[in-house]
Fold this sequence. Notes:
Blueprint: H1 4-16, H2 19-26, H3 30-44, E1 49-52, E2 55-58, H4 60-85, E3 92-98, H5 102-117, E4 121-127, H6 133-138, E5 144-150, E6 161-175, E7 188-191, H7 197-208, E8 214-218, H8 222-230, E9 236-239, E10 251-266, H9 273-287
Parallel strand pairs: 3-4, 3-5, 7-8
Antiparallel strand pairs: 1-2, 5-10, 6-9, 6-10
InterPro entries: LysR_HTH_N, LysR_subst-bd, WH-like_DNA-bd_sf, WH_DNA-bd_sf
Family: Belongs to the LysR transcriptional regulatory family.
Organism: Nocardia goodfellowii
Amino acid sequence: MLDVRRLRLLRELSHRKTIAAVAEALSYTPSAVSQQLAALERETGAVLLERTGRRVQLTPAARTLVEHAETIFAALARAEAELAAGRAELAGPLRIGAFPSAVPTIVSPALVALSREYPKLELTVAEVDPATVPQALRAETLDVALVQEYDYVPAAPDPAIDTEPLLEETIYLAADTVEPLAARRDAAWIAGTPGTLCHTMTIRICEAAGFHPRIRHHADDFGTVLALVAAGQGVALVPELGVTAPPADLVLTALPARRRTSVAYPRGMGGSPAVVAVRSALHAAVAELPSRRSEAGS
């Protein structure tokens, strides 16, 4: 019989690439991860890892086993969800991950509703970059989270998570003067931290317009981004949730590009009463958002 905990370590290795990264994510020591993977090789009677010095790679047999492991974990999640559905009331910890601009606009109203209806839920919110959400859901450090993708930065499907659409937003060019995107090739730009989706989105939208942006400032909070734009420090691309209260005299021009937000949770957990409650509360919060800005900009 295969050990599920060892299968989880192998799955994490397929995503995180190094034993040290797996150990850090799951609170093991690297030697313990290596020992458990060696035990999994003995259980399967197959070579799962190819070792070259300190580096390891998954063999074809290991990749096949990871595919089966995803099905196993989803089945276990469905069983857990069905058992939870039989309990009298929702209680216990529930960890929600969200990107910063969604916390005050979507997540906070949802938390109020959830706390009122399910007072025994122990709700926890963490601000996370959407790029890290799949890893957090697989590692079980989050139960539900918001993920996003932009036009020009599509999200790769992940067999470990299920998603459902929540919100679609316009992307705005934020500046202190009225000029189209194509005329901004020589401007200073403000973008997110390298490696974030916002940073990648800025580069790809500009490249689609025919130039590579000259990024002077990095900021991940859209309030900070807009303050820098208003101070004449550059221009930026900001999604709709990030421009709910822009500084005076800021010029916002709607672009033919969108950000799409989805609710994500571990595959198989869609029927969990807690997950169902969070999904419902998030959709209700989106339905109460103020009317959208004019597509012509402001």
